[in-house]
Each structure stands twice: as structure tokens, then as C-alpha cells.
Amino acid sequence: MGETLRLHGHVIEALKDGFRIDGLWHLIKDASFRDNPVNAGYGPGQPDINRVLQVHSADQPEIADLVAELRAVVDAYADRVLIGEIYLPLQRLVAYYGKDLEGVHLPFNFQLLFTAWNAPALASLIEEYERALPVGAWPNWVLGNHDQKRVATRVGDAQARIAAMLLLTLRGTPTLYYGDELGMTNVPIPPDAVQDSWEKNEPGLGLGRDPQRTPMQWSKSVHAGFTDQTPWLPVGANYRQCNVDEEKGDPGSRLPPPEDPRRPRPPLFVLVPGPPSRVAPVIHAGLNPMSAGNSLSERLRLQTPPSGAACCA
Residue 231 and which of 16, 40, 239, 240 are 20 to 30 A apart at CA? Predict the structure, then answer.
């Protein structure tokens, strides 16, 4: 695969930022082509993929060499990043950073999508992930994607705002799914409008991913300003209020206004470099998004920066 990329270097040249590899942990199959064992826990209502345990078709030992080969090709080009879509437990996920960090730059960390939404569970996850990271590995956090319910649907609108604050203050690279910055929610899809093959093949199990793949809501005009034609999926019923045009002019919305490059940022509080640690809740500028004991400020260390200090997280 690495040789294929080398032969098509123009592709890497065109992709100025790099690659996201879909289903990375599935790229290598068992060398003897053994069948996956039957899943004794499979039952009615589960997706067909759960009939077997993915022992021989995923996360094979040889994947490390393949990932290192891909990384070597990408590293031959300046300022490219290699990202891997990987749904694995933490200890296996971080293995994709590779020996001597020669694997993918960012093995997508989807843990926030599945962790119980309460302060103790989140604190435990953050600490476990930080402990699992190889020395020198750069962390990353994903709050939403095209395969899972939107964050505002998962945890509610108010907590979705808190989730965004958490994402943007955790150490590492944040990944926010399009529309989540507006508060877009899952959209009910009528049976005759279904596009997702998973829902078509296994209807009625709630496996369809179309509800979180609806058009971006740009404005309150027809089809949310996404197109003047009929879109492939219906837009959300709330698009007249939940859209870019409406929110960018509302100082109380979750969508931040464009930065004025002439206006200096006030040096009030910065995140202190270093690993996360627990401190007492800190309330700044009258913002108290969560009740005492659940404040996300407990996950941060905040201080007034010394004069001329740089900020990093």
C-alpha cells in the first residue's frame, strides 16, 4: 500500500493536509484466512456484524508494519498528517501511534462518544487515556462523527455546550463534527428517504446513520441554504433558528463570531502547560455552566499568565 501511495504522489500533493484512513484497524486480515469465531452473546435486535467476533479480521499484528510504511510515505511531504479511524479499547488504540511514534500521527480517540456523560466517568476516562499514551505521543479527542448520534442528541442542548468546552480545553487536537458547533441534532428520516445502506439492509434496528448526516444548516432560506435543489436528505426542522447566519450574529449563541485581528486577546486566564489535574471549581466572568461538583473547571488548571507568557495546552 505504501508503494501505491508513492506511485501516486500527486494525490498526496493535492491533499495539502494529509489523510484520514477509514477502518484502519481492518486493513489486514488473518494470514491463514481463518474464519472469525461465532459470538455466543449474539441475540435478536443486534446488527448482523455482531454474529462473529472480529478476532481474525481486525487489529492483526502485521498492521503495525503497514501503518509505519504509510507514515514513511506521508512524512516525505511537508506538513502532512496521518489520521486513523480506529474503534478499539484504549490500550490497543494507542498502539497505533507505533513503535518510536512511527505510526499514525493521530489514532482517532472516540472514547467521548461512548463514555457515560457525568463528571466522574469523564474524569476517569481522561486520566486513563493520558496514562495510556506513549511517551511523546500527541493526544486527540473526538466529540462527534458521521457514524454516531450527534452530541446534542446524545446529551441534550445545554450539555452539548459543555461538551464543546471540554473538547476545546482538553490537551490535544480536537475534532468537532460539522453542525455540532451550531447545536444541530439528529433528524428523523422517513423510510422512503433512507440513503444509508446499513439501514436499508437491516431496517428497524436503529442502525441507520442518515439522521446525523443531514445537510449543513447555513441559513433560514430554502433547504437551509445548502442547495437550491432537493438535497439527498431532509434538513432539520429547526433550521430557521439553528443555522450559521442566525448564530454568528447572536453573542449568546455557541458559534463564536469571527475574530477581529486588530483586537488583542485579553490576557486573563490560560491553560497551564502540562498534564491535566483536578482543582477546585473556577468561575470566570460570571460563567457557571455546571453546578458545583460537576464543573468542568475541575478538569482544568487555570492561572493568570505572567507578562509575555505563551499559552499552550
Answer: 16
* H-only helix segments in 47-156: 63-75, 90-93, 119-132, 151-155
Catalytic residues: 22, 85
What is the tens place of the pLDDT at every residue in 82-118?
Answer: 999 999 999 999 999 999 999 999 999 999 999 999 9
The mean pLDDT value for 227-254 works out to: 93
Q: What is the pLDDT of residues 268-286, one digit of tens each?
A: 455 555 666 654 443 333 3
**For 166-200, how does the pLDDT look when each residue is reduced to its tens digit (9 = 90+)?**
999 999 999 999 999 999 999 999 999 999 999 99
| 83: nearest Cα among 145, 162, 152, 166 | 145
In the chain, the DSSP E strands lie at: 18-21, 81-84, 106-107, 140-142, 173-175, 270-271, 302-303
Dihedral of CA atoms 46, 50, 52, 56 in degrees, nearest 10, equals: 180
Which spans in 133-196 are helix H? 151-155, 157-169
Which residue ranges form the domains of the chain, and what is each CATH number?
A: 2-268 (3.20.20.80)
Q: What are phi and psi of 305, to 5 degrees?
A: -70, 145
